[in-house]
Design brief:
Chain lengths: 436, 275, 290
Amino acid sequence: MKKIFLKIAAVCCAMSLSACSAKTVHKVTKPDGKLDKCSLRFSWWGGDDRHEATLKAIELWNKKHPDITITPEYGGWDGWSEKVTSQVKGGTEPDIMQINYDWLISMSPDGNGFYDLDELSSQLDLSQFDEEVLSFGRVSGKLNAVTVSVSGRSLFYNSEVFSKMGADYPETWNELMALGNSFGADGLYPLDLDIQSGGTAWYLAVVYVQQQTGRQFITLDGRLGFTVEDIKTALSFYKQLEESHVIRTVRTRTDEDGNAALYQSPEFIGGRVAGVLEWGSAVGKYESVLAEGVLEAGPLLTDENGCSDGWMIKPSLLYAVSKNTEHPDEAAAFINFLLNDEECAEILGTTRGIPASHKAEAALKNSGELKGLSKESDDILRNADTVTISPYMELSRMKEFYNQAIESVSYGTADIDSAAQQMFDSVNNYLEKIRK
Amino acid sequence: MKKILLYLVLAFISIIMLYPLLWLFGASFKSNDEIFTTIWFMPKSFDTDVYKKAWETVTPYTMGHYFINTFLIIIPKTVFAVLSSVLVAYGFARFDFPLKKFFFALLICGMLMPSIVTIMPQYYMWSKLGLLDTYIPLTLPSLFACEGMFVFILIQFMKRVPKEFDEAARIDGCGTLKTLFFVLMPCIRPAVVSIAVFTFLWTMNDFLSPLIMIQSVEKYPLSLALRLSVDSTGQGYEQKKIIAMSVIGLIPSVAVFALAQKKFISGITAGGLSG
Amino acid sequence: MKSRIYRNSVGVSKFTGLVLILPFIIGAILFIVYPFVCSFVVGLTDNSGCLSFNNYKNILSDRNIRQASMVTLKYTAVLVPLKLVVSLLAALLLNCELKGIGLFRTAFYIPSILGSNLAVIIMWQYLFTSDGLVNQLLSAAGIAPVGWYGDTNAALFIIVLLRVWEFGSTMVIFLAALRDIPKELYYAAKVDGCGRIKAFFYITLPQLKNIIFINLVLQTIAAMQEFNAPYMITGGGPLGSTRTIGMYIYDEMFRYGDDGTANAVSWLLFVIIGIIVMLMYKFTSRLRRD
């Protein structure tokens, strides 16, 4: 009796193993070079302005290609990656997706998670992109995604507060440290760094060490470039920022803002915190909570010799095609429209950052839409000797390691040496686990 | 004197309970700056334009569209949940049958399992059946009395109705179902109403399962449509518009509660149990 | 095999009950047993898809999971008694025949319909920040303001407060039970010269013991699975002091895409809750029977 029961249980287990991990093997549909009548799903996340512009662009597409209908699927960033992750796991993802840089690693570790766009070059004009920009979307040699725009984090300051304090925007790390004195005397802070999902605290520390050592924190192929010593330097640099009153301690920051984003914080809106490190493409929300024109782009920090190495850029967004799509040609044609069509570029404007496509950028230049803080930030970074962020650095699990280290150093629950060693070990272990 | 004191205490607590709602309503008229810097609920000025903007949303559909979607989910779900829970609770409370203990243990087990875990296997199941992006994954499970807590509460309520009631009905020639609907139901009405209200409120607030199961914006329920506007990354970030949307989104919950209040609280407390 | 007699009313077959719970049987297979088995099996698979006990072994030695378990237990231990006491007191207060009492009942209940609605989350943020309402009130009363969000204990307490504030549904169940206590008992007590407080301990509490138990179990289960409130209000910080197991599971499953660990931890949580509920049942069975 018992034996039979065990056997049944074993069979059930074996069956459910296949049933639980809904991995259905789809055949990859080969391109046939023709545009057929079909309907495609296209998904993206973003804010109001992006939704509005994209829907208008889809309208224009439907006018030009009445045979190929596009069904939009969109939402806010909250929960979006969870949604797409489960879709990709279940093989139910949309034909065309806007994806984040680190998804290339998490959803397509071997380069076979998305459609290889090189095969679709008859519909997709890749000549509008620099080879370096295209390489962002390559995994194991396969073009998994095309970069929509490139952006990097740079510094933005509250100009009212700075002029009231009679201070100039800092150009070197030492000048930044020195600002803590004058600002601190009035209870103000020249900058804010966070350990929330943005994780700017660790980011700035990485830039500082990269500039000093010339080593990249995490290499593009997913290896840890920093030594334990480097991580120690980064963490002490952060601690020094706190101690010199350049930024609020994690404790103070959390007490004052809770879990709210900086742009919702009374401290930032009221000007007590006068600077922020942010992606050029996402600075709008900080700009809009201050009076018009108050937020200004500041220079990248350099060492005493004016060397600006170490600042980083990455593709802020990419478009990818599902490997399960039945209409690869049509999907590629639509991506081409979004990226390279001049009319479409004018509709989309800079809602996805400054376009990486030459054609689209030229169209925006002609219509005079290339302006504002995100353009300024873009120019500042273009003139610097930037490095490309590794997608591995952006993985959410990795961010947890950084934030944990910063938090424990800030709270003093761990000394810098042990925090650095622990971070070094966890990062190394994790990278090893996912790299194969 | 004593009465006045009691009233004062009640009023004071009520203010604590309701202030956040009041603040929220006030905040829907405030500028970003004002919201984040004052805790007092009164806005400097009332500009109802924000509600018009909120109603229109940023999508091609108005909030009315999302309300309809939400009700398309909520109404079947509520009916299903009530019907199935009552039937199953009746079976457990009034009948003896093989494996009863086992099934009851299973019911309790279902309550102990975190719901985050069960959602992924369900997702795979619906995706294999090709029923994603429909309301079936959101409504159909309710037909199977999956909410253990509801059955559990109903059983407790049914057990307190004297068994003689059933016996009497039987002698009068009522069948099993007739006994349930004409004898037991009137006695446990408050519990049934509360189950309906709970289902309604939980579905209104539910975010994760529609996020996973529904794909096209056209079919989004209200909770998803709200989220869609929260994460405004662009220029012109306006907190008050989002707050106005969530205020509109709260109206059905508050309305249903106000309507059901009499049955729900008064009914449940009116001694309907002691028969 | 030992045969059993099923005691049903006359003319009811032993299968009537089974037929009635048929929807549940189907539902249990589809929505309880199947996901259960699935999650156990997925918990058994590692990254490469092989069967192994690694996930279960790993979670027992993982520092973060141990911390999350402690947080969850601490949270439950503080929240559940507090919420039960508050909702019982509120129910006692509302259990009277005043004019307009229905209005007050509604007011007391309304917070609990909000759940963890976005609006509530925004509100909560501004109550407890450094210059928030709570600190303003504290300093008006001459008490030094508290750093709520940055302190490991205070941060957890903020979440406890939110859930206590939403005591409505527990309160309603108490109210219903209070109404059920025969009035004669109180009259008799009064005649015997029994004070109000004495009457509460000798009549009200014993009469309520079953309902208290039900509320205790329901609230414990809910508290052990808490995920929404800490996720949205504190994000798990500071120093992981508000990161519950529920949140841990969500992060592993969706944020980090590690299904194996997520499901293994779910089983851990399931077993912990099961043990706690069983202990409660065992320890209170004598009390409840008397």
